[in-house]
Amino acid sequence: MNVLIIGSGAREHAIAWKLSQSEYCDKIFVAPGNAGTSEFHTNASIDIHDFNELAKFATDFNIMMIVVGQENALVEGIHDFFQESEYLKHILVVGPKKAGAMLEGSKDFCKNFLQKYSIPTARYQTFTEDTYRNAVEYLKNHTYPVVLKADGLAAGKGVIIAQDFEEAIDALENMLRHRRFGKASSKVVIEEYLVGIEVSVFILTDGKDYVLLPEAKDYKRIGEGDTGLNTGGMGAVSPVPFVNEAFMQKVKERVIEPTLRGMQEEKLEYTGFLFIGLISVNGEPYVIEYNVRLGDPETEAILPRIKSDIFEMFRALHDHTLGEYKLEIDPRTAATVFLVSGGYPEGFEKGKEITGLENVPSDVLVFHAGTKLLNDKLVSNGGRVIAVTALADTMDEALAKANAAAEAINWQDRNYRRDIGFDLKGMHA
Ligand code: ATP
């Protein structure tokens, strides 16, 4: 069976790598892909927002399954588009339809859903330009810090944690009045700031049954010690030591099960991954966000821990047999470190030659993100460039291996965090 993966990050490279281990997968195409995905798979240079172009490609190359790595295509309705066509509906799309993708596409929709189905989350209210004055009043009476979120997709940049009233008003004005994030900030969610430790939980679900994937913790800030600006993610670790059985039981009962109930009641016809961003507040799980696809860099840490054939898992998703599906998980720890361009997440230069990949030990996985081939040379082509993942019996060993691999890969001004996972050291389930 031929498969098409949508996206160009290390997440999509990891999905392609994992799917290529399946005896059921013939050709794997990645649209648009990167230099890493072109090595063992085929890149398809198509505009992923142009569904007609994707449909033509799928027909020409006999694609039977589409795995959507990134959220925009889902929010834009890629699944609905394929399902609604007589000629395309036989293609299995891993990723929810537009209605389900709203769980990520609109923070107001998400918070409403959480509240309606009594899923623990921070207290909140949503405001628009018309209710600007009410938002100011709300902020006057709020405790600080307070969190302001642009309603729509803002590539991880639409969340401001304001330390005081002035900062909050500034953010509010920027979002609602100056449309800092365009249409995405025509509504703003203002919510209570929760103090705790974050963890990402992933399921694959058909809206009724689900398979629980390994959990992960990601590191969003650019600087060591979790300082500086937010990035797409600088590294990840899986499993997460503080996630014990008691915590997971609470997550299942208070979060996952009511989420599936809500999906059914709202008729979201969900088929795909659901990434549940949680914060543990004194051991109690609260939902920070849903994402309707896998995370990046979490995917690079969790897929190497899955021993099962994920193609079979995708088939079970579409056959509605996930309830009987047993996922086999490697108990070892996976540590992922992301190498990024100097200056990222602000201005950075591209086109720098990448060297040293040959010095990475063969048991360390290398997933490309912003890379491309230029005159047969591998060069940087984005902010986040390469993720390395090491597996080992202990977290310390996995981290040491991943850091050593990161050190071996180089280009002018490359940067990476040397403290991924350090905050988890000594923590036990
Ligand atoms: P991303 O795209 O990076 O996943 P996002 O833009 O969808 O993020 P959120 O995940 O809702 O936005 O928030 C981003 C980050 O802000 C969270 O990972 C968390 O660290 C912090 N955050 C969000 N809401 C809260 C909250 N209520 N209390 C404390 N921290 C929060």
Automatic annotation (TrEMBL):
Residues 111-319 form the ATP-grasp domain. The keyword Ligase applies. Pathway: Purine metabolism; IMP biosynthesis via de novo pathway; N(1)-(5-phospho-D-ribosyl)glycinamide from 5-phospho-alpha-D-ribose 1-diphosphate: step 2/2. One of its GO terms (molecular function) is phosphoribosylamine-glycine ligase activity. It is an enzyme of class 6 (ligase). Its cofactor is Mn(2+); Mg(2+). Its EC number is 6.3.4.13. Keywords: ATP-binding, Ligase, Nucleotide-binding, Purine biosynthesis. It catalyses: 5-phospho-beta-D-ribosylamine + glycine + ATP = N(1)-(5-phospho-beta-D-ribosyl)glycinamide + ADP + phosphate + H(+). The keyword Lipid biosynthesis does not apply. InterPro entries: ATP-grasp, ATP_grasp_subdomain_1, PreATP-grasp_dom_sf, PRibGlycinamid_synth_ATP-grasp, PRibGlycinamide_synth, PRibGlycinamide_synth_C-dom, PRibGlycinamide_synth_C_sf, PRibGlycinamide_synth_CS. Belongs to the GARS family. NCBIfam families: purD (TIGR00877). This is Phosphoribosylamine--glycine ligase. It comes from Pontibacter locisalis. The gene is purD.
